[in-house]
């Protein structure tokens, strides 16, 4: 399997504090990876380091091919027209695909002579995305591209992105606070918490490997000795366990599948737990 991205022992210190610490992760080529984590987890720092805007203080980063980046907040100059924005992109990027950029914006009905500042938030996001895609990157890193967009625009931007990357076989790493925005489109999950990678893996494998068990609190010890408990919630005599590992056959327990949101939240609330494949398994 080809890797699009690999970081090993990556640490980034910003001023006096470590924004990232000992981050080792690998993302196979062609995946659409969700990067989730709370405020200050280090998502932007990780993306900046991956695309070369920040130098690692420790460890290594390896990207197969060219990386493009779409920054958080206002990644465009509002005083430029759309056409000027594209001309700027062409000047800065040797591999720039001008006909593709113009064609994409025309299909979206975004006027090239309009100032960027006079476009809607959704249209601005589409222009920024077009600029990143027109570089024809092998890896595209998107830092909260959906923030400030209404639900319809979020959906449109994600759908447009998915069509493009499926055609170009680009690897995507996209950060968001909102798991629901990424659930339908991403097939890889990276959870960053407190500057370290807590979860990284194929979403289907992660969902298949976890379950929610409900049963009598006094029997919890029998489960916790056999399987890794990510989260335990007790209500009176009952207990609900989000576990990773072997199915439980004891009839006192009922089991149900876990949702992606539940899985992410359980890990974030329990930073001492981790679900990380060995890097050798990802690249095998
Ligand atoms: N320029 C900087 N100088 C010093 N510390 C910084 C700087 N930028 C970020 N940090 C710190 O680094 C840590 C990680 O920040 P980062 O912006 O990468 O997190 P994030 O997960 O992207 O957060 P958010 O979801 O709020 O955008 C935080 O503790 C933050 O305060």
Integer tally of domains: 2
Work out the strand percent: 25-35%
Instruction: Look at the structure and name the CATH superfamily of the largest domain.
Output: P-loop containing nucleotide triphosphate hydrolases
Rg, rounded, reads 21 Å
The number of helical elements comes to: 10
Physical arrangement of strands within the biggest beta sheet: 5-6-7-3-8-9
Which CATH class of the largest domain? Answer: Alpha Beta
CATH topology name of the largest domain: Rossmann fold
Low-pLDDT residue spans: none
Global geometry: elongated
By CATH, the architecture of the largest domain is named 3-Layer(aba) Sandwich
Major sheet: size, sense and barrel closure? Answer: 6 strands, mixed
Oligomer: single chain
Bound molecules: adenosine-5'-triphosphate
Share of residues in helices: 25-40%
Task: Label the structural class.
Answer: alpha/beta
The end-to-end distance, rounded to whole angstroms, is 6 Å
Sketch the topology as an H/E string, one letter per element.
EEEHEEHHHEHEHEEHEHEEEHH
Give an account of the 3D structure.
Keywords: ATP-binding, Nucleotide-binding, Transport. This is ABC transporter ATP-binding protein. GO terms for molecular function: ATP binding. It comes from Sphaerisporangium dianthi. The chain is of the alpha/beta class and 284 residues long. It has 2 domains: 3-203, 3-Layer(aba) Sandwich (Rossmann fold), CATH 3.40.50.300; 205-269, 2-Layer Sandwich (Alpha-Beta Plaits). It has 10 helices and 13 strands. It has helices at 43-50, 82-92, 98-107, 121-133, 151-168, 179-183, 203-208, 220-224, 260-269, 279-283, and strands at residues 3-14, 17-28, 32-36, 58-63, 67-70, 139-143, 171-176, 188-193, 196-202, 210-216, 228-235, 238-244, 254-257. The strands form 3 sheets. It has a 6-stranded mixed β-sheet with strand order 5-6-7-3-8-9, sandwiched between helices. A 4-stranded antiparallel β-sheet has the order 11-12-10-13. Strands 2-1-4 form a 3-stranded antiparallel β-sheet. Strand 11 and strand 12 form a beta hairpin. Helix 4 (121-133) packs parallel to helix 5. The longest helix has 18 residues, at 151-168. The termini are close together. It binds adenosine-5'-triphosphate. The site of adenosine-5'-triphosphate has 11 residues, from helix 1.
